[in-house]
Every structure is written in C-alpha cells, then in structure tokens.
Amino acid sequence: MPITDWPEDERPREKLLARGAAALSDAELLAIFLRTGVAGKSAVDLARELLAHFGSLRALLKASQEAFCAEKGLGQAKYAQLQAVLEMARRHLAEALPERDALNDPQAARDYLKSRLRDLPHEVFAILFLDTRHRVIAYEELARGSLDGAAVYPREVVKAALRHNAAAVILAHNHPSGVVEPSAADRALTEKLKAALAVIDVRTLDHLVIGEGAPASFAERGWL
Hints:
Blueprint lengths: L11 H8 L6 H9 L8 H12 L2 H5 L3 H5 L6 H21 L9 H12 L6 E7 L5 E9 L9 H10 L4 E7 L9 H16 L3 E8 L5 E2 L7
Parallel strand pairs: 3-4
Antiparallel strand pairs: 1-2, 1-3, 4-5
C-alpha cells in the first residue's frame, strides 16, 4: 500500500511535522530522504530493506559511492544529496563551536570531532586551536596515515599554533578500528607535543581518541 493511503498521522512526513524528527524510526527518516519507493514497495518498505542490507543507518550513511549506488532505488543523485546533508551537519556543528567555551562545554567539541573523524578508514591527527577564552579559532588536520598510524611532528604542531595565534589546543585523532583505548605511542606523542607547545606558552587542554562510543579523554584520565 502506498504511503499516501496510510492514515495521515502514520505517514513519516506528517509524523515528523506533528511530533518532531526524534519521534521517527531510522526507516521513517530514511523514507523521507528517499521520497519515493520502487515498484511494489513504499519508501518505508525500501528504507527497511536498505537498512537490513547495510546493517544500520550509520553503515548506510558511510557506505562508499559504489556500494550506495549499486542498490535499487538509490543512485548518483541520491548519493550526492546524502553527502550534501552530511556536510551540512558537519558545518552546523562547526559554526556552533566558536560561540562556546571548549573547556566548560567540552561536549560541543567532542561532537564536532566525532563528526569529522569517527568514520574515516585511515588515521587522522587533528587539532582544535583555541583563543585565551578557550573559544575555537580553527580546526586543522595535520597528519593522515594508514590503519597503522599517522606521523605527527612537534615542530609542525608548534608552527600551526603560532600561525593561528592560539593560546590553547585540543588534540584529537581517530582509531579506525573503533577501539578508543589510547596506546603507549599515543601517550608518548602527547607528552612530546605538550612539552613543545609549552615552550611557546600554549596549553594542551585535552587529547581525544575518537572511535566507537564516547571518545577517550586524556584530561579525564589525569594524563595531562
């Protein structure tokens, strides 16, 4: 039965407008994005099949262009729309950061860093540069690597901090494996960077390891 024949309060779009997006299931949200189904299937039916195929909404959202476009009901246009939506979400988080104190409101910084780093297939080392009031000046990725790690040089970190005229930094990198537990190498690198930045009077507020679940925080563990 097509969605137009459903009771009005059960249609995904009408349900969203009446009750808010949080009230919708993953399949209903995806159905609104898809807009139409395929022969013999409503948009919700198609959405449920896609979620079952990919395993989860997140897995679908981070699927490669080839895997995404290979599915019936999807294609290049839908892939382009999806990437635009994801990038708008990242920019929304980024625009909110400068308005907040990253030290007193750490969740905003964590949410942003997770959106940038969590689903990458390779390791990336990034920094949030902060002013004297701990507001975000800039986000910069300083190293990209393989699954085995990323090369980070203290002199490059110091140069970047001077370029942004930063008073403090939040370091971050992702573990593509999803395991957020910091390694001995992560701790050693953090000590090197903290010492190098201290020479130019820049504070290291935290180092976050991004993976599945909540990021691991060096500050919360008392390692800074």
